[in-house]
Amino acid sequence: MTRVVVADDQPVVRYGFAAILDAADDIDVVGSAGNGAELLDVVAAHRPDVAVVDVRMPVMDGIAATAEICARHPGTSVLILTTFDLDEYVFDALQAGASGFLLKDTPAPRLVEGVRLVADGSMLLGPTITRRLVGDFAQRTTRAAPGIENLTGREREVLLTVARGLSNAEIGAELFITEQTVKSHVSEVLRKLACRDRVQLVIAAYESGLVGLSERA
């Protein structure tokens, strides 16, 4: 059972998202919050697998709350909610440690699936958004991407599919390997590139030029 908390300063939106998620058989909404400060207390009390977090909230915004959650509770993944697919705040949220984002008008099934993907360790960025968003985000960072040369051929393939925004299940289907094998490869790539999560893996792929080289091949 995936344990989830929802944070949004608009009660109708907050309760609506909570109701949608709680209706899923494999998701249990264990708490909610109306601002970032409340969210930190709720996360500390319930230790959820996923926190669904609005960007703009009073007292403490979603970005600041995300940074605190990722620092204090590494077992909780953060799924950011935003109004626009290229909202400038999303860049900061990803840098703070968020695992991805969804638009606030996302269909209910996509919200449920998004929580499942983030809980599974996947990065929730669609392929088109990945190219625009992470490409720009990589230009804002100065972190080098050492270790690419130490990846095996299969690990490079996995990194490329992660950079395209695919989930573990989708990567397994494309590369004809099991989902567990995908997880093992992703863990090894994370270790070799000294990356914290899949978002940083995507950034590393862009910074190294690996994505561009693949696309031109």
Automatic annotation (TrEMBL):
Keywords: DNA-binding, Phosphoprotein, Transcription, Transcription regulation
SUPFAM superfamilies named among the record's database cross-references: C-terminal effector domain of the bipartite response regulators (SSF46894), CheY-like (SSF52172)
Sites bearing 4-aspartylphosphate, chain numbering: D54
Source species, domain of life: Bacteria
SMART domains, per database record: HTH_LUXR, REC
Species name: Oerskovia enterophila
Protein name according to UniProt: Oxygen regulatory protein NreC
InterPro entries: CheY-like_superfamily, NreC/VraR/RcsB-like_REC, Sig_transdc_resp-reg_C-effctor, Sig_transdc_resp-reg_receiver, Tscrpt_reg_LuxR_C, WalR-like
Sequence ranges assigned to domain HTH luxR-type in this UniProt record: 144-209
Name of encoding gene: nreC_2
Residue ranges annotated for the Response regulatory domain, each copy included: 3-119
